[in-house]
Amino acid sequence: MIDTRKPGANQDDDPLADDPRARKAGDAGETGEEISVDALLRGEAEAGREASLRNEVAELKDRLLRAMADTENVRRRGEREKAEATLYAASNFARDLLSVADNMARALEAMPEQQREKADDATRNLLAGIDLTYRELMQVFERYNIHRVDPLGERFDPHFHQAMFEVPDPDAPPGTVVQVVQPGYRIGERVLRPALVGVAKPGSRTGPGRNGRGA
Predict the structure, then answer these.
(1) pLDDT tens digits for 160-189?
(2) Cα angle at 177 between 164 and 93, to 5 degrees?
(3) What angle do CA 167, 170, 173 make, to 5 degrees?
(4) I need a surface site. Which of 10, 28, 173, 206 has the fewest CB within 10 A?
């Protein structure tokens, strides 16, 4: 049998090794697999960076919103403290003037209206001057949000009233202010001086008994 292979050829060699088309297909296969893996790795890296950037943006947004809220709270607190400081700055000065207002009121109450009409001109002019000064002082108090507390007939309020005694009054509900010993004053919602009052005693109201008479 005659060997038709070329001299020097090895029978173990791949018969397609020298085929350019086979070589090109093999190279293309290997190159395509490598490109696919690289693209996958790049995609995963980009997705990771995108997720990291999104988390960072969300965190920065949260910090910004918190900082804006804190700033707004500080601004509102500052405005409130400024308003309160303006309102209550005159508290001590106004408290010192309450005794002046009390003395003027006592001077006006010392002479009843009937006696004023019988008084001489000098006394009437003096009382008129005191009354005018007292009214002007009350207007100044009102201008600075200082109000007189005269709770006669009102429900006793421990925030603005100070009970001095109890009064057995059958015509008033228990806990009602039936006598004002000294009026109080408040500035805004704060008490400058509580009103000194007498309160209707609980159980003082009388009613018909079993026999139709007072119990």
Answers:
(1) 999 999 988 888 899 999 999 999 999 888
(2) 65
(3) 80
(4) 10
